[in-house]
Amino acid sequence: MLAKFAVKNFRGFTERIELDLTRHSNFNFNVNAIKDDIIKNGIIYGPNGSGKTNFSLAIFDIVNHVSQKWKKPDYYANFAYSGDTFIKVDFEYTFIFDGQKIEYNYSKNYQGIITAEALVVDGKQVFNRAEGKLAIDTGSFPMEKAIQKNLADNANHVPIVNFLLMSFPLAHDHYLIKMQQFVNGMLWFRSLDVREFIGLETGTTALEEYIIGNKLIDDFRRFLANVSGQEFEFAPPRAGEKVLFCLIDKKRIPFMAIISTGTKSLELLYFWMKQMGKASFVFIDEFDAFYHFKLSFEVCKILFEKDCQVFTSSHNTYLMTNDLLRPDCNFILNENKIKPLVDCTEKELRFGHNIEKMFRANAFKV
């Protein structure tokens, strides 16, 4: 699981900002939001322009070089703070797999090329490359001096972690394999003016073709009814048909022609929920931008039942309730800081507190 993440100089974050998912309280409600002593589910709030989207994108930077899954084509546009071509963007990841702690840190230049890289496992340095020098644990990864020198110079910008994964036969439970599998299972997506995603899949999918091809029309109909109360009667697909049709007064009408923006967003959510069985870490950016506030609540309930880590960003304070999560799983991002609600007040928070009302009354200070 992802236990901690920090970034510096990424887009609008000129100072180091850290999300520590190991810091949780001992609340005796919504205990399923904590898994293996790590926060499994969370919602990030913050004013417009505070950096919620950029912070979530920063978490997924690792997908760009460790995974072969789908990348965001314009990810490295405006990558470094203020477009500075000399500044380095620093990333820090801490993963915990079966009690083993993996710390993977690296720096990239404004073009997204790795300039420094280090890996520490359970407090022991595996490798560290910086300023044209490489120190590596040759007991774990034996290699000739010439190879070490080439990796230190690294004119073709090969990430050390990728070289080790490709060059050494590793056991299925090796920490590098576990980290690679986790990164391969990371998924970021959103549905605003443009649908975008990072990770998990290697290409794009036509949603309705997927639903028809996998015989999921009835399942999709039940999903819409359960989460949003909308009842649709879908026409049986004709041979070769790749889009959904609804029956209205016995007439076939294209589904896309009659639904709201929110329902279109639900269709995308339905698709990704079908893929989450192979996901490790999911972030949905502004997932409820087009949802009714009660629909957002129902969607979150379903998402947070998934085995993987699931986080979202939102402006909907109706979700800021102990009936859904807990104060250590609701985060505020503002002024280059991100903190859970428990760290934003000196008041002891309990299940009976109306934390949404407290939030609206400015009781929480980042």
Characteristic terms for this protein:
7-stranded antiparallel sheet; 26% helix; Rossmann fold; 7-stranded mixed sheet; alpha+beta; 366 residues
Description of the molecule:
There is one protein chain. A seven-stranded antiparallel β-sheet has the order 2-1-6-7-8-9-10. Strands 12-11-15-16-5-17-18 form a seven-stranded mixed β-sheet. It has one domain: P-loop containing nucleotide triphosphate hydrolases (Rossmann fold). Helices cover 26% and strands 25% of the residues. It is built from eleven helices and 18 strands. The chain has 366 residues and is an alpha+beta fold. The chain starts with a strand and ends in a 6-residue tail after the last helix.
* Distance from first to last alpha carbon: 26 Å
Global morphology: globular
Order of helices and strands: EEEEEHHEEEEEHHHEEHHEEHHEHEEEH
The radius of gyration over CA amounts to 22 Å
Unreliable stretches (pLDDT < 50, length at least 5) are none
CATH topology: Rossmann fold
CATH class group = Alpha Beta
